[in-house]
TrEMBL record, chains A, D:
InterPro entries in the record: AAA+_ATPase, ABC_transporter-like_ATP-bd, ABC_transporter-like_CS, ABC_transpr_LolD-like, P-loop_NTPase
Keyword Chloroplast: no
Keywords assigned: ATP-binding, Nucleotide-binding
SMART domains, alphabetized: AAA
Residues of the ABC transporter domain: 2-243
Pfam family name, one: ABC_tran
Name listed for the protein in its UniProt record: ABC transporter domain-containing protein
Superkingdom, natural source: Bacteria
UniProtKB/TrEMBL annotation, chains B, E:
Descriptive protein name: ABC transporter permease subunit
Subcellular location: Cell membrane
Transmembrane segments: 39-60, 72-96, 102-125, 166-188, 208-229
Topology within the bilayer: Multi-pass membrane protein
Residues in ABC transmembrane type-1 domain copies: 33-227
InterPro entries from the UniProt entry: AA_ABC_Transporter_Permease, MetI-like, MetI-like_sf
PANTHER family: ABC TRANSPORTER PERMEASE, D-METHIONINE TRANSPORT SYSTEM PERMEASE PROTEIN METI-RELATED
Organism: Nesterenkonia aethiopica
First-listed, main subcellular location of the protein, grouped into a coarse class: membrane
UniProt xrefs under Pfam families: BPD_transp_1
Length: 248, 239, 257, 248, 239
């Protein structure tokens, strides 16, 4: 369970003297995300979505208020204990953040290596899970966007984290690859029972897969809605076919 | 004997002379190449063993770095700037007491490696800092999100991602060192550059001088070529 | 006073250490050392030549006990070093002398040199003083009292001919000789030979040839009597060295022993 | 009028020796785009959309076949004449391609300057058209994605080109900014009667604004459809409100 | 007189001496600073007037550049590599005939600027090439799509976008030139570095030497500071 209690986050603006000042990215957020749910966070650009996500694994410290993950406040831990805690929270980035000089396999193995674990089996199992086992020894530059994101998801899941944070995991992808990735996330949730927090500005994506969603507007939480799933999409044999049907 | 014949003999004569003077100096030339090799080897070793950690530390401790420490940064940065601005000849001379304290002697090829090493460390540290700055911020963020320690950040994330840049800048440092080592004759360091100066500049054996310069150009191009090739080989960022 | 120097000397006396390290600068000095090395080898000594490409380091090395002797300088230069560094170096034997002087491409006599002409002199302290002293001796300029051979351009008190100074590296002086508007060029015979000249062609020669400026074999004062240095001195003043100087460099150098 | 006649485009693959070879980006395309129409090009990633667009202003030369713009084949022109021709075709890029060190004004003025024209009025008029007159003297780094793209459109239009080529002009933008930009393009077409070629993988975008659309599949033209416009969207006062209504 | 007093006097005496020797040399020191200024000024002028176009040409003509011309590139690249690898002292000496042909004299501060200019041109050309390579490909594409000529591509697109990098690399070249100019005493160029060597090192006036080195360090840091500041000021890429 993730709890945000009266959380505020402000940044010193990056501008030079004249335009300097505080940016209030989040203001007085109270929010509880339940175990095993897929929770969406939507909002305009600059509304504070990424900030909220980054507070959960303490990549940013809250300016005021508390962030509890399974009852633990990361701000109060020693750096060492905080690192240990972070390892229990996976993160998927918008730009994939794969290491370019490592193969898909090595990228997925990386979190295990950081814990001095060498588990080939586990790595291959995760690559298999995201359907990338056959590309294990390719470098990211040879993979398509959707493939890269699948590897990134495998990497986030390989240590079996209880929580998976996803910051716009599909916005760099076209429709086709978006579906691919969202299918995987759905599967993660069903099969691994991971709590997933999904930040996105694409309403379709959130509507199609989340249980609940928070709507942010200029740093404030304007609503937490139960999401009503849309009717399932028609299945097409190809993008071209679908495009043609949709446009006509 | 006609004028033409004389001229022909003249040219042949000069060629013979060139060959003769070169082969006469072959031993010394080989030795001076070996000396340059020793000086480069030692100073590059220092660059890797000390300059790499130092540049990394500068990267980590700079103002917007992962672990800002103004004092440490100012110190390291000062070292780099000072070594870069003192005339190298005077730097070499100023280091003599230190070199003697360290090695027991202050002249000869090994001793000459000491000032070179200082410069190599400073130059490489600066390059390493710059190269690491080119690693995308997101890579650092990824390391953080995976709970990596600082050591892991450096060895598992920064170095692998920056490796081609690190090789390329070591290449540049090597070439600068070839040029710095030219001066090391001052403390009896020898080397190809000193050889060329002694025989070309001081005793007007121009054939020897040009031959030596040619060798240096070839060597520098070979170093550059090797460096570029290696750095391309280990770079998987784009294909 | 140097420990290192002392122990080196003792080793020589006990016969264990037969290596004599001699620092030198450039040819023909280094050639002389090599000739002497062959001579000393006959008596079982190994003379090791340490080449330094600089005009201060051979004295540093000697004062610091890293070499046993050096061969690269004249006595006044050595004394200047002694004075500034509290060193006790001692000149042992003059080996050869060079007839330095001024050369001119455009004029056959100093009298023809017009006022305001350019004069090329070396840019290292020891040769600068020597060059100025020659001009002083011939009355072209006058130096401040008491500067002797250690004058700098700043010590020129009277310059009636309004000479303009061009300071370049010793080794570039022969290049300056070919320059269009340089009237006088200081030089050593060895280097001026590059443009095919000998001291005969000089328009001004050093007059006070009192061997002050003969190139000397130098050691630390306390080692001067050691067996090793004695052996070195013998070799350096041997007939072989004299023959070498006469045969190879008779036009430019005079043996001084 | 833009005509593609039996156009083929292949690239030497960027791979090293082993994987080297030809990539057939476009195969035997026949297509006519009429004056003053808004023409969509859709297709999966790698299907050849960008290649097709870049053939029109001859940023790439066709491997075989002919590309005629108003009856002229750019391949047959001298470099000088080709440059002149290109100036009559505006282009809007996915990543905006604004010069970072020039203000919005200077970016828009740039195409005029290349023709040695200094027309302040004209530049301000275009900035006004895209609703950016008040930001004229700001540098791109201070503008939002939508604002940047609007400046880029003003730049493409400032020389009054007969044709506007847009390569995924909205895919770097969120829904909100996408609408903003598409509104401007609609206006361009209505008011300036410019022929617009719009490449996009977002079907919604194409459906909402194009008259006809070509569907590409692995380099082949599978269809040219007349697009049926969707019912107009409901008007919401804010993104947050719309998000809430859509998700629930 | 107690030992302490003697020591005290000693220190004071040395300070006095330092002051005295420095003020005695003030005129010459100022002159040598002016000489360094002239040499730097001339060589940087050459770097900007020749190195900039040369580097730009290298950028344009390289294999994947906007106007590939293998021959031109090989030529320019060769020049840069050769100038970088020949020992600078020998390079200076080898250029004497050329300098004399060009300026009528081969000695003095102006003449000394010639070899420095060659090096500055080569170094800056290489930096310009690298800096332009950092301009995103899309900028070139934009220029193409707007029908810009090659000249316009360079002046309207590449230079404005790369300007902060161009300034920063000119700064680096300037600092390298300070260090290269140290050698120019060899052909009567004078300058601060030569002053430190001749008045400090060769005549054992160590106060003068250290004071001069200090000045050089300050100057180099000032150049670096100014360069960094300027390049930040004109960089609008991120805020
Ligand atoms: N490191 C930072 N320093 C200063 N301001 C920041 C920083 N990070 C974010 N901000 C500001 O905080 C606000 C919220 O940013 P945040 O990244 O959380 O928004 P977002 O909803 O994720 O937007 P987007 O959809 O564009 O990613 C914005 O105004 C942003 O400019
Ligand atoms: N310069 C190039 N060199 C080699 N191959 C290229 C080049 N440009 C494009 N390609 C290849 O040509 C094919 C079509 O590319 P194109 O960019 O036209 O596709 P696209 O439909 O625009 O895709 P996307 O939606 O990803 O932009 C792809 O397989 C691509 O890899
Ligand atoms: Mg965000
Ligand atoms: Mg494309």
């Amino acid at each position: 369970m993730i709890e945000l209690q009266q959380v505020t986050k402000s940044y010193r603006s990056r501008g030079t003297g004249r335009r300097g000042g505080e940016v209030h990215a989040l203001r007085g957020i109270d929010l509880t995300i339940r175990d095993e749910e897929m929770f969406g966070v939507v909002g305009e650009s600059g509304s504070g979505k990424s900030s909220l996500l980054r507070l959960i694994n303490h990549l940013e410290a809250p300016t005021s208020g508390r962030v509890l993950v399974d009852g633990v406040d990361l701000a109060r831990l020693s750096p060492r204990a905080r690192r240990a805690q972070r390892r229990r929270i996976g993160m998927v980035f918008q730009q994939f953040n794969l290491l370019a000089n490592k193969t898909a396999f090595d990228n997925v193995a990386l979190p295990l290596r950081l814990q001095r674990r060498r588990e080939r089996e586990r790595v291959m199992q995760m690559l298999d899970f995201v359907n990338m086992a056959d590309r294990a020894h390719q470098h990211p530059s040879l993979l398509s966007g959707g493939e890269k994101q699948r590897v990134a998801i495998a990497r986030a899941l390989v240590t079996d984290p209880g929580i998976l944070l996803c910051d716009e995991p599909t916005s760099a992808l076209d429709d086709h690859h978006t579906e691919e990735v969202m299918d995987i996330l759905g599967q993660v949730r069903r099969e691994l029972r991971t709590t997933i927090v999904l930040v996105s500005h694409e309403l379709d994506v959130v509507k199609a897969s989340c249980d609940r969603a928070a709507v942010l507007e200029r740093g404030r939480l304007t609503a937490v809605t139960d999401v009503v799933a849309p009717p399932p999409r028609e299945a097409y044999s190809s993008y071209a076919e679908r495009a043609q049907r949709y446009l006509a | 004997m006609s004028g033409q014949e004389a001229a022909g003999q003249g040219v042949l004569g000069r060629l013979d002379e060139l060959g003769a003077s070169l082969s006469a100096y072959r031993g010394e030339m080989l030795q001076s190449i070996a000396e340059t090799g020793v000086m480069l080897g030692n100073s590059l070793l220092a660059a890797v063993l000390l300059g790499l950690p130092m540049g990394t530390w500068m990267y980590l401790s700079r103002k917007n770095g992962p672990q800002p420490r103004t004092g440490v940064y100012a110190l390291l940065n000062g070292y780099v700037n000072v070594v870069r601005s003192v005339p190298f000849l005077l730097f070499v001379v100023a280091l003599i007491p230190f070199t003697r304290w360290m090695l027991g002697t202050s002249f000869g090829t090994t001793a000459a490696s000491v000032p070179l090493a200082f410069v190599a460390v400073a130059l490489y540290a600066r390059w390493v800092e710059q190269t690491l700055l080119d690693v995308p911020r997101q890579t650092v963020e990824l390391a953080d999100s995976l709970g990596a320690s600082t050591l892991q950040l450096v060895t598992r994330f920064l170095y692998p991602e920056a490796r081609s840049g690190l090789v390329l800048s070591l290449t540049t440092v090597t070439i600068s060192m070839v040029s710095y080592s030219t001066i090391m004759g001052v403390v009896g360091g020898g080397g190809v550059g000193d050889f060329a100066i002694r025989y070309g500049y001081q005793t007007y054996e121009y054939e020897v001088m040009y031959a030596t310069i040619l060798i240096m150009i070839v060597v520098v191009m070979a170093i550059q070529g090797l460096g570029t090739w290696t750095s391309r080989r280990i770079d998987r960022r784009l294909r | 006073a140097s420990d290192a120097g002392g122990s080196a000397g003792e080793a020589g006396e006990t016969g264990e250490d037969t290596t004599i390290r001699v620092a030198s600068h450039m040819t023909p000095m280094t050639d002389v050392v090599e000739v002497a090395a062959d001579v000393a080898a006959e008596d079982g000594w190994t003379v090791e030549l340490v080449q330094v490409n600089d005009n201060v380091q051979y004295n540093r090395l000697l004062a610091d006990g890293e070499v046993d002797a050096n061969f690269a300088q004249h006595e006044p230069y050595m004394e200047a070093f002694n004075a500034e560094h509290d060193a006790e170096l001692q000149a042992l034997a003059p080996i050869y002398d060079a007839k330095v002087g001024f050369y001119s491409r455009d004029y056959d006599d100093v009298a023809e040199v017009p006022d305001g002409a350019k004069v090329a002199i070396p840019n290292d302290a020891s040769n600068e003083g020597r060059a100025l002293a020659i001009l002083d001796e011939h009355g072209l300029i006058s130096l401040a009292d008491g500067v002797g051979f250690e004058g700098r351009i700043a010590d020129v008190e009277e310059n009636p001919h309004d000479l303009e100074w061009v300071q370049v590296d010793l080794l570039n002086l022969s290049s300056a000789y070919e320059e269009d508007d340089v009237a006088l060029v200081y030089n050593y015979p060895t280097y001026i030979a590059r443009v095919g000249l000998t001291p005969e062609d000089a328009v001004l020669l050093e007059e006070t040839v009192d061997q002050r400026f003969a190139i000397q074999l130098v050691s630390r004062a306390e080692d001067a009597e050691s067996e090793k240095i004695q052996a070195l001195e013998r070799a350096m003043t041997s007939d072989e060295v004299r023959d070498f100087l006469v045969e190879e460099h008779s036009e430019t150098l005079l043996p001084s022993f």
